[in-house]
Specification:
With 220 residues, this protein is of the alpha/beta class. The chain has helices at residues 41-49, 74-78, 96-106, 111-124, 140-152, 170-184, 197-200; strands at 2-9, 18-25, 30-34, 56-61, 64-65, 81-85, 158-162, 189-194, 207-212, 215-219. It is globular, with a radius of gyration of 17 Å.
Length: 220
Protein backbone atom coordinates (compact mmCIF):
# COMPACT_ATOMS: atom_id res chain seq x y z
CA UNK A 1 0.00 0.00 0.00
CA UNK A 2 2.86 2.39 0.86
CA UNK A 3 6.13 2.16 -1.00
CA UNK A 4 9.37 4.16 -0.73
CA UNK A 5 12.01 3.69 -3.44
CA UNK A 6 15.43 5.26 -2.85
CA UNK A 7 13.83 8.30 -1.24
CA UNK A 8 15.77 11.36 -0.11
CA UNK A 9 14.25 14.53 1.31
CA UNK A 10 16.19 17.34 2.96
CA UNK A 11 15.36 20.75 4.36
CA UNK A 12 18.35 22.94 3.64
CA UNK A 13 20.85 20.89 5.63
CA UNK A 14 22.63 17.62 4.90
CA UNK A 15 21.79 16.47 8.43
CA UNK A 16 18.02 17.05 8.14
CA UNK A 17 15.34 14.86 6.58
CA UNK A 18 15.91 11.35 5.22
CA UNK A 19 18.09 9.67 2.61
CA UNK A 20 18.18 6.36 0.74
CA UNK A 21 14.87 5.10 2.18
CA UNK A 22 13.48 1.84 0.79
CA UNK A 23 10.35 0.64 2.54
CA UNK A 24 7.08 -1.22 1.99
CA UNK A 25 4.11 -1.03 4.36
CA UNK A 26 1.09 -3.28 3.95
CA UNK A 27 -2.61 -2.59 4.42
CA UNK A 28 -2.82 -4.20 7.87
CA UNK A 29 0.67 -3.44 9.25
CA UNK A 30 1.30 -1.84 12.63
CA UNK A 31 4.62 -0.03 12.30
CA UNK A 32 6.69 1.76 14.90
CA UNK A 33 9.21 4.31 13.60
CA UNK A 34 11.77 4.59 16.38
CA UNK A 35 14.86 6.68 16.88
CA UNK A 36 16.12 9.83 18.60
CA UNK A 37 14.88 13.32 17.87
CA UNK A 38 16.01 14.36 14.40
CA UNK A 39 16.30 10.79 13.14
CA UNK A 40 13.82 11.39 10.31
CA UNK A 41 10.64 9.87 11.75
CA UNK A 42 8.45 12.92 11.21
CA UNK A 43 9.87 13.42 7.72
CA UNK A 44 8.76 9.91 6.75
CA UNK A 45 5.24 10.68 7.94
CA UNK A 46 5.21 13.98 6.07
CA UNK A 47 6.25 12.19 2.89
CA UNK A 48 3.33 9.75 3.26
CA UNK A 49 0.97 12.69 3.86
CA UNK A 50 2.70 14.49 0.97
CA UNK A 51 3.23 17.53 3.13
CA UNK A 52 6.62 17.42 1.44
CA UNK A 53 7.81 15.65 -1.71
CA UNK A 54 11.09 13.76 -2.14
CA UNK A 55 14.11 15.40 -3.70
CA UNK A 56 15.01 12.00 -5.13
CA UNK A 57 13.23 8.68 -5.40
CA UNK A 58 9.55 7.77 -5.33
CA UNK A 59 6.85 7.64 -2.68
CA UNK A 60 3.68 5.80 -3.64
CA UNK A 61 0.50 5.53 -1.53
CA UNK A 62 -2.08 3.34 -3.27
CA UNK A 63 -2.34 4.92 -6.74
CA UNK A 64 -0.83 8.27 -5.73
CA UNK A 65 2.77 8.77 -6.86
CA UNK A 66 4.96 11.60 -5.64
CA UNK A 67 6.45 12.06 -9.11
CA UNK A 68 3.08 12.45 -10.83
CA UNK A 69 0.62 13.80 -8.26
CA UNK A 70 -0.97 17.14 -9.08
CA UNK A 71 -1.28 19.74 -6.35
CA UNK A 72 -5.08 19.64 -6.58
CA UNK A 73 -5.04 15.88 -5.90
CA UNK A 74 -3.06 16.09 -2.64
CA UNK A 75 -6.23 16.95 -0.61
CA UNK A 76 -7.87 13.83 -2.08
CA UNK A 77 -4.99 11.73 -0.78
CA UNK A 78 -5.11 13.39 2.64
CA UNK A 79 -8.80 12.59 2.99
CA UNK A 80 -7.70 8.94 3.02
CA UNK A 81 -5.11 9.45 5.77
CA UNK A 82 -5.87 9.93 9.46
CA UNK A 83 -3.36 12.17 11.25
CA UNK A 84 -2.68 12.23 15.00
CA UNK A 85 -0.22 14.75 16.46
CA UNK A 86 1.61 15.13 19.76
CA UNK A 87 -0.12 18.44 20.50
CA UNK A 88 -3.59 17.15 19.48
CA UNK A 89 -4.38 20.11 17.16
CA UNK A 90 -7.96 20.38 18.39
CA UNK A 91 -10.01 23.53 17.80
CA UNK A 92 -10.31 25.17 21.21
CA UNK A 93 -13.52 27.04 20.31
CA UNK A 94 -15.33 23.81 19.26
CA UNK A 95 -16.63 21.03 21.45
CA UNK A 96 -15.71 17.35 21.13
CA UNK A 97 -18.55 16.60 18.71
CA UNK A 98 -17.62 19.51 16.43
CA UNK A 99 -13.91 18.64 16.44
CA UNK A 100 -14.62 15.09 15.35
CA UNK A 101 -17.30 16.03 12.82
CA UNK A 102 -15.45 18.80 11.02
CA UNK A 103 -13.98 16.69 8.22
CA UNK A 104 -17.42 15.22 7.45
CA UNK A 105 -18.92 18.70 7.26
CA UNK A 106 -16.16 19.75 4.88
CA UNK A 107 -16.94 16.69 2.73
CA UNK A 108 -20.64 17.66 2.68
CA UNK A 109 -22.01 14.55 4.37
CA UNK A 110 -25.64 14.61 5.44
CA UNK A 111 -26.32 15.82 8.98
CA UNK A 112 -27.88 12.56 10.15
CA UNK A 113 -24.96 10.52 8.84
CA UNK A 114 -22.51 12.85 10.57
CA UNK A 115 -24.38 12.57 13.86
CA UNK A 116 -24.48 8.78 13.72
CA UNK A 117 -20.83 8.42 12.72
CA UNK A 118 -19.54 10.85 15.35
CA UNK A 119 -21.47 9.29 18.21
CA UNK A 120 -20.39 5.80 17.11
CA UNK A 121 -16.70 6.77 17.14
CA UNK A 122 -16.94 8.63 20.46
CA UNK A 123 -18.70 5.72 22.13
CA UNK A 124 -16.11 3.34 20.70
CA UNK A 125 -13.41 5.40 22.42
CA UNK A 126 -15.38 5.81 25.69
CA UNK A 127 -15.92 9.52 25.06
CA UNK A 128 -19.70 9.57 24.66
CA UNK A 129 -20.08 11.42 27.96
CA UNK A 130 -17.70 14.17 26.79
CA UNK A 131 -19.52 15.06 23.57
CA UNK A 132 -20.30 18.66 24.60
CA UNK A 133 -17.01 19.38 26.36
CA UNK A 134 -14.49 21.89 25.03
CA UNK A 135 -10.82 20.76 24.81
CA UNK A 136 -9.87 22.89 27.83
CA UNK A 137 -12.13 20.69 29.97
CA UNK A 138 -10.47 17.43 28.89
CA UNK A 139 -7.45 15.58 30.21
CA UNK A 140 -4.48 15.05 27.90
CA UNK A 141 -5.46 11.45 27.34
CA UNK A 142 -9.02 12.43 26.48
CA UNK A 143 -7.77 15.06 24.02
CA UNK A 144 -5.71 12.44 22.21
CA UNK A 145 -8.69 10.07 22.11
CA UNK A 146 -10.70 12.88 20.47
CA UNK A 147 -7.86 13.24 17.96
CA UNK A 148 -8.03 9.50 17.27
CA UNK A 149 -11.81 9.73 16.75
CA UNK A 150 -11.27 12.65 14.35
CA UNK A 151 -8.73 10.58 12.41
CA UNK A 152 -10.99 7.53 12.27
CA UNK A 153 -14.14 9.36 11.21
CA UNK A 154 -12.85 9.60 7.62
CA UNK A 155 -12.45 5.80 7.42
CA UNK A 156 -8.83 6.28 6.33
CA UNK A 157 -6.62 3.69 4.68
CA UNK A 158 -3.86 4.42 7.21
CA UNK A 159 -3.47 6.18 10.57
CA UNK A 160 -0.28 8.23 11.05
CA UNK A 161 0.62 9.16 14.62
CA UNK A 162 3.55 11.51 15.23
CA UNK A 163 4.73 11.13 18.86
CA UNK A 164 1.08 10.70 19.99
CA UNK A 165 2.05 10.07 23.61
CA UNK A 166 4.71 12.77 23.92
CA UNK A 167 2.55 15.03 26.12
CA UNK A 168 0.79 12.26 28.07
CA UNK A 169 1.39 10.54 31.38
CA UNK A 170 2.34 6.83 31.34
CA UNK A 171 -1.19 5.55 31.95
CA UNK A 172 -2.72 7.68 29.19
CA UNK A 173 0.13 6.72 26.86
CA UNK A 174 -0.65 3.04 27.32
CA UNK A 175 -4.35 3.65 26.67
CA UNK A 176 -3.57 5.48 23.42
CA UNK A 177 -1.20 2.78 22.12
CA UNK A 178 -3.63 0.02 23.11
CA UNK A 179 -6.42 1.81 21.24
CA UNK A 180 -4.26 2.20 18.15
CA UNK A 181 -3.43 -1.51 18.34
CA UNK A 182 -7.14 -2.32 18.53
CA UNK A 183 -7.75 -0.17 15.45
CA UNK A 184 -4.99 -2.02 13.61
CA UNK A 185 -6.56 -5.38 14.48
CA UNK A 186 -9.61 -4.22 12.53
CA UNK A 187 -7.41 -4.38 9.39
CA UNK A 188 -6.30 -0.78 9.24
CA UNK A 189 -2.66 0.20 8.85
CA UNK A 190 -1.17 2.23 11.71
CA UNK A 191 2.23 3.96 11.70
CA UNK A 192 3.49 5.45 14.97
CA UNK A 193 6.61 7.60 15.29
CA UNK A 194 8.00 7.49 18.82
CA UNK A 195 11.21 7.60 20.82
CA UNK A 196 9.57 5.75 23.75
CA UNK A 197 10.80 2.17 23.42
CA UNK A 198 8.66 1.04 26.36
CA UNK A 199 5.52 1.62 24.32
CA UNK A 200 6.80 -0.59 21.50
CA UNK A 201 6.50 -3.57 23.85
CA UNK A 202 2.72 -3.02 24.04
CA UNK A 203 2.32 -4.28 20.46
CA UNK A 204 4.25 -7.56 20.18
CA UNK A 205 3.23 -8.15 16.56
CA UNK A 206 4.34 -4.69 15.34
CA UNK A 207 7.04 -4.03 12.78
CA UNK A 208 9.86 -1.90 14.19
CA UNK A 209 11.79 0.40 11.87
CA UNK A 210 14.77 2.12 13.49
CA UNK A 211 16.17 5.35 12.08
CA UNK A 212 19.28 7.37 12.77
CA UNK A 213 20.56 10.44 10.94
CA UNK A 214 17.84 10.11 8.32
CA UNK A 215 18.58 6.49 7.41
CA UNK A 216 16.98 3.15 8.29
CA UNK A 217 19.39 1.24 10.52
CA UNK A 218 17.22 -1.85 11.09
CA UNK A 219 13.82 -3.33 10.28
CA UNK A 220 12.15 -6.06 12.31
Amino acid sequence: MINFQNVACTFGSQDAGVKNINLNIGEDDFVFLVGPNGAGKSTLLRLIYMDCLPDDGLVQIKNYRSDKIREKDIPKLRRQIGMIFQDFKLLDDRNVYQNVAISLYISHHKTRKIKNEVHEKLNQLNLGHRVHYKPDNLSGGEKQMVAIARALIKDPIVILADEPTGDLDPRASIEVIDQLHKINQENKAVIVATHDYNLVKRVPDARIISLKDGQITSMI
